[in-house]
Structures
1.
Amino acid sequence: MAAPALLERLQAAGVGLDRAPLIHVRSPHNQHWAGWEDYFRASNIPRARLSGQTFNNYVQAVLDQRGVMLGWRSITGDAVRDGALRMWPGSEVDLGMSYYVTARVPKSRSTQEFLDWVMMCGESD
C-alpha cells in the first residue's frame, strides 16, 4: 500500500517494489505478523536490502508518503475506499496466514455476537 502521489511518483520513475522505500512496523508483538521478507519470498521478488523506516504508527507514515507498507484489508480497507491509499498494482499475495476461532456449543449470546462480528470483518476481504 502507498499514498497515491508516492505510488505515482515511484511508478513514473520506473521504481518497482524491489527498490521502493519500505515502511516497517515497530512492535514487540509482531513476530506473528508477516513482514517484508515473507512478502518478497512469497512474491518471488528479489530484493537485496530490506532497509527502510520503522514506525509505531505505520499507516500514518504511509499517508505522509514516507514509503510503502504491507497492508491488510482489515486495516487499510477504509483508506483504500476513500482514496487515501492505493494497492501497488499486481502486488496482492496470500501469505497463508489466518486466524481461527474455536467456540463451544451451546454458545453464549456474547460469543455469538463476537463470531458474527468476526465473520462480518472477514467478508470485506
2.
Amino acid sequence: MSNTASDVLLSARDISVTFGKGKRAFRAVKNVSFDIYRGETFGVVGESGSGKTTIGRAIMRIQPLSGGEICYGGQRISGSIPPELDREMTRKIQMIFQDPMASLNERAKVEYIVAEGLYNISRYVSREYVKEAVSRALSDVGLLPEFASRFPHEFSGGQRQRIGIARALIMQPEFIVADEPISALDVSIRAQVLNLLQRLQRERKLTYLFISHDLSVMRFICDRIAVVHLGEIVELADTDTLYNHPLHPYTRALLSAIPVPNPQVEKEKKLLVYDPSVHDYAKDAPVFTEIEPGHFVLGNQKELDGYRERLAKG
C-alpha cells in the first residue's frame, strides 16, 4: 500500500532536544525528520542512550524541543499551543510506558489509575460513566472488570502492563507511543502483549510509534522502521527492505546481533561491530537522502554512491 501526504498523521521536521545549558548542553536528538502514516506501526530502534525514548517523549510533549516542530493532523503541537488544542492532543495521543512496575501508582486502585485521564480532561464525568468506561477498557485488554477494586501490587508484570494499556485506551486515542512496552516482561508474556496491541490496532484503527532496542520484535510488529544512533536517524525504510537490504554500517551491525534459532547457523554467523571511524565527514558532510523510494539513509556523497552500487547489485 502506497502512502500519500494526505495519509500523514504525525510529522516531525528537524526536531532537536537539548538537555542542560551553556557548556553543559547535550543534544540528545539532532535534526530528526520523519512522517508517520495513519494506521501504521512506525518503529524507532537503537541502542540504549541513542535518543529513541526522547523522541517519543518529545511527541508526547513531555520533553520540549530545542529546534524544529511536530505537527499532528496538519496542526503544530510543539511549543506553546492553545489550551483547547492541548486538551485535544492529551486525549488523542497516549503513551504506554516501559516499566509496568514503576508506571502505576501503588497507592491508587486500578479504577482510579485507568480513569485518571478522564478526570484530567473533564471535571464533569459522572461516577457511572467512569465505572462503565473502566470496565470496558479492562475487558478490552483481557482483564476482569472486578480487578478495578484492586491495587497494582496484586498483579503480575504482564497484567500490570495490560492495566497501562487500558489506561491509554480509555481516552479513545488515535495515536499511541509504546515505549519498549514488553522489554520488562517475561518472554512467555511478550507475545501475548504484542498480539493484544495488534488486535487493538485493527479494531480501533490505531496508529503506533513503537520504540524498542529489539530488532526481532520490530520485524514482527512494525510496518516501517527508523534506526537511531546518537540522536540521529541513520536509516529509515519499510521493514522488509531494512532487513533484506540494510545499507548503513550501524544498521547492519544491529541486524547481525539478532540471534538465529539454529545452533549451527548461530555458531557460524559473523557478528559485525560498528566502527564510527569508517565515516570520513571532515570535508563531505552526511545528508539524510532517499536512496530509493521510501528508503532513506544518512551518508556523504561517496557513501551514497556506494550504497546505490550495492542496491544495483541486489
3.
Amino acid sequence: MNNKEKLRRFFNLFTGNSKVLVVINADPDAIASAMAVRRLLRRKTAEVVIAHFNRITRPDNLAMIEHTESGLVELHTVKKEEFNTFVIIDSQPDHNEHFSGFKFDAIIDHHPVSSDKAPYVDIRAHYGACATMMTEYLKTRKIKPSAKLASALMLGIKTDTADFTRGATLKDIRAFQYLYRFADNNIVRKVERATLTQDNLDFLGRAIKHRKVVNNRVFFHAGTISKPDELVVVADFFQTLSKVNWSIISGIYEEKLIIVIRNDGLRRGAGNTAKDAFSMFGSAGGHKTMARAELELSLVKKQSKSLSKKVIAEWIISVIEKTAGKKIE
C-alpha cells in the first residue's frame, strides 16, 4: 500500500468533530512525529493535543520542546473523556503500561511489530525513525513544513539514527535532505548543544567510578534514581569506550526497575535481548542497537530475593548472560 492510500485510510478516521489525543513516550522522534500528526490534522479536526507520560529531564529534549514550540502537555493533566479519537506514535500499546488505558484508533511506529490491533496501523520496522515516515506523509499531502516542524523532524531522524550511523536507510537520508531546505539550523544547533547538566556530570562520574566491565560489556546499577534520562546519558557515553560492545545501565524509579541497553549493532540485537530477558517482569523491547525495560519491582524481588544495589546488579548480569549467551560480543 502506497503512502497516498495509507493517508486516505488515516484521514478516514477523523471528522470535523474529532477531538484527537496523541499519546507519546516523549523523545525527539516521538515529539517531532506527533507535531507532524497535529499539522496533518490542523484543518480536519476540532482539536489535536499531544500528551506525554514520561518525565522529561534531558537538556536536549527540553531545548527541543522550547525552541520548536511543540506544545506538549503532561498526560495526567488531560481528561480522557474530553477526546473521542486516540493516536499512538513512535510506540505500540504494549510498550508501556501508560498506554493501556486507551483504545487507540491509529498506531504509527517504526519499532518491530508487537501490538497492531487498531483500525489504522502503519508500522515500518525497516525505517530508522518515525519522523521519516511522517515526513513522507507531509510530502504526500504536499504540505510544506514550517521551520520549527522541519527542525523537529530533522532532530528526530538524527537522534534515532545516531547521525545516520545506527539503523539508517536511504529513506531516512532522503527525508533529512528534504527537511534541510525548510529547517532553521539555529534551532538544530541550540538543541544539539544542550547535552549535559551539572547533575548529569555528577551521575556520569558515579557511573564511571562504579562501572563493572565483563566480556566487553559495561554494567552500572545506580540504585534509586530521580531522573531516568540520566541512564540514557550514561548508556550512550559508555558506548564510546574502546572495546566496549554493550552497555547495560539501570536504576529504580517510582517502583520500577528501569534498564537501558545499548550495543554496537554488530551482534545480537538489544531489543530482542531485552524482550527475551525481561518481558516476563514488565515491558521490554526496542531496536537492534538500543532497548529499554521497565520492570515491576515485586516480580524482580521474587527472582533476585533482594532489592539491594549489589544483588540487583548481579541479577541483571546473570539474566543478560543467560539470555544472550556467556559472552555478549
